[in-house]
Design a protein that fits this description.
Elements (H helix, E strand, L loop, with lengths): L2 E4 L2 E6 L2 E6 L2 E8 L8 E7 L5 E7 H4 L4 H10 L8 H17 L2 E5 L3 E3 L2 E3 L4 E3 L5 E3 L15 H12 L3 H12 L3 H4 L4 E6 L6 H9 L9 E2 L4 H10 L3 E6 L6 H13 L20 E7 L3 H6 L7 H6 E5 L16 H14 L3 H12 L1 H19 L6 H22 L7 H19 L5 H20 L1 E2 L10 E6 L2 E7 H8 L6 H9 L3 E2 L8 E5 L2 E8 L1 H17 L1
Parallel strand pairs: 4-7, 7-11, 12-15, 12-16, 13-14, 14-15, 17-18
Antiparallel strand pairs: 1-2, 2-3, 4-5, 5-6, 8-9, 9-10, 18-19, 19-22, 20-22, 21-22
Helix pairs in contact: 5-7, 5-15, 5-16, 7-12, 8-9, 14-15, 15-16, 17-20
InterPro entries: DUF927, P-loop_NTPase
Protein name: DUF927 domain-containing protein
Pfam family, one: DUF927
Length: 558
């Protein structure tokens, strides 16, 4: 068949005259996924009845199969003026397949975020590569991002209201830090803002969301764990704001925390029984609620594990007026919050485009820059007495600080680098104060549990030289000139609430020289009592007391 494309539409030569197939439509590129082995298709551009030009990537597997009707329905639904009759569609289908084979190649991406030096969203792609990149499915659903007003509008009516408000600046920094996770080599994480009702938590989420879009960008915790995994996948390399955790089921929260933080959906089988493709993502979550995560998990009898505490940082809302300190001339906090909410709804979405443009320009040097800045800020905010878990959290705060400084330095944010770092440091201090200590969580809980147990054991232990019978919890004896408490293994584990497989928990006591062991693989001390060998945990009470004093001293200094 012979075709010609004119401004008023597409024509095909039939016999000795040209017949109209439909409106103007063109194959802009032959597309495929980044591996160049899958996802082959065509980038179409067409003009609808209203003269609006639209673009969409369609897969060759759909265009060249029984699913071709879906492509036709999509075109007609968007207003493409297809000439009535089956022959018109058959001709258009043939034309598109023919042109696809002749078109210049391009890469399609099916998820947001970084693809080499290109950053893709459902609205736009920014960056440089050896060939154009296009996002698949631009018309298949609602766009994740929305844009209203200019960067200058956002700076004037939203950004200026953040000045003097550390939590507001920190929330903006979290939004800017999300696209930096990959370059910084960091793992997924979350900041959970906790405070009473009407303290401004949701406003902080809307403020962070204004970097990307309007209030609809804020999602809800009210979903299944699978639903939250799907939402996370849509926010790859972008902020994921989740509002009101208290409305979700604790079971879903427990599963969702692991899925979101691990960055992967559940393993599933396809219809043929083979392993289906699993979605993956990188994201930072900004969450809000009136309850702590630990309180939610207690409802289903689960503790908040140390690994969860490090990747999901719980932060109390602080400020003179709820989440805010500076009301910028307003006499009542609610007036200020109302203006901030209104401004976020009117002006949003311009910041992320400017931010990503800056990042793509510096993409080759971004990793080196972030490693230097995160190291510099972490070194300033941490000390040698802080445990590794705390230092990991400080690195995340440092990434947020580095993002804010880069935004201030390049005139994207309307405040100084000094105010950015001051806001992040004050927020970090609020987290440390709320945590109450800078030790690893397991060590802190174990030492506190030992402190309580030792008050009981001190009154009940008898001298092993005068042992008769079981001796209650255990015995005292001298070892290398120091007092040693031999606590029966079962009693020790029960009193401290330790599991049957306990070595990970007691290892820190062995490292701190709080326990003596002649069975290192068990962590226990085996000795003869009343003619029979018994197994104990051999505790050095003086060393435990020194560790508790050190813990108290460090916390007072902090």
């Amino acid at each position: 068949m012979q075709y010609k494309l004119q401004e008023d539409g597409l024509y095909v030569l039939s016999g000795d005259h040209w017949q109209r197939v439909g409106g103007w439509i063109q194959v802009m590129a032959r597309t495929r996924l980044t591996d160049k082995r899958h996802g082959h298709g065509a980038l179409l551009e067409w003009q609808n009845f209203d003269g609006v030009k639209l673009r969409e990537v369609v897969y060759a597997r759909d265009l060249n199969s029984d699913n071709a009707r879906q492509v036709r329905d999509m075109l007609v639904d968007t207003g493409y003026p297809l000439t009535p009759g089956q022959a018109s569609w058959n001709r258009l289908q043939h034309y598109l397949l023919e042109q696809m084979a002749l078109a210049e190649p391009a890469t399609v991406v099916n998820r947001t975020g970084w693809h080499g030096g290109v950053f893709a969203t459902s609205n736009w792609t920014i960056g440089s590569a050896d060939e154009p990149h296009h996002f698949v499915g631009q018309l298949s659903g609602s766009a994740t991002l929305e844009e209203s007003g200019s960067l200058s509008d956002w700076q004037t009516y939203v950004g200026q209201l953040c000045r003097g408000n550390p939590l507001a600046i920190f929330s903006i920094g979290t939004a800017l830090a999300a696209p930096l996770i990959a370059s910084a080599g960091m793992e997924n994480g979350a900041i959970h803002l906790v405070g009473a009702s009407s303290t401004g938590k949701t406003t902080l989420l809307q403020l962070a969301a204004s970097v990307y879009g309007g209030n609809r960008y804020v999602r809800s915790w009210i979903s299944t764990s699978n639903g939250l995994a799907a939402v996370s996948s849509e926010h790859n390399d972008m902020l994921l704001p989740l509002d009101e955790i208290g409305m979700a089921r604790p079971e879903d929260i427990d599963t969702a925390i692991y899925q979101i933080m691990n960055g992967a959906g559940k393993l599933r089988a396809n219809v043929s029984g083979e392993l289906a493709a699993t979605s993956h993502w990188r994201t930072l979550v900004l969450s809000s609620g009136e309850v702590w995560i630990a309180e939610l998990l207690q409802q289903i009898g689960k503790p908040l594990r140390a690994g969860q505490q490090i990747r999901l940082v719980e932060l109390p809302v602080f400020g003179t007026y709820g989440a805010f300190d500076e009301l910028h001339g307003h006499t009542h906090p609610q007036q200020f919050v109302d203006e901030l909410k209104s401004s976020c709804q009117r002006y949003h979405g311009a910041v992320i485009r400017e931010w990503v443009s800056l990042l793509t320009e510096r993409h080759t040097e971004l990793s080196q820059y972030l490693n230097h800045e995160v190291g510099r800020l972490s070194g300033a905010w941490a000390n040698d007495q802080m445990a590794s878990q705390v230092q990991r959290v400080i690195r995340r705060f440092a990434l947020i600080g580095a993002a804010l400084c880069l935004g201030s330095r390049n005139f994207i944010l309307p405040w100084s680098e000094e105010e950015s770092l001051s806001a992040v440091h004050r927020t970090l201090k609020a987290w440390l104060d709320n945590r109450g200590h800078s030790r690893n969580s397991e060590e802190f809980r174990l030492l506190k549990a030992l402190e309580r147990a030792m008050k009981v054991w001190e009154r009940s232990l008898s001298d092993i030289e005068q042992a008769s019978g079981q001796g209650g919890a255990g015995f005292r004896r001298s070892h290398e000139g120091r007092e040693l408490w031999l606590i029966y293994k079962s009693h020790f584990l029960k009193r401290l609430g330790l599991p049957t497989h306990y070595m990970r928990e007691v290892e820190v006591l062995l490292q701190r020289d709080c326990l003596v062991s002649n069975e290192r693989s068990r962590g226990t001390y085996k000795t003869r009592v009343n003619g029979d060998f018994q197994r104990f945990f051999a505790l050095r009470p003086d060393q435990v007391r020194r560790q508790l004093e050190e813990l108290e001293r460090i916390e007072h200094e902090d």
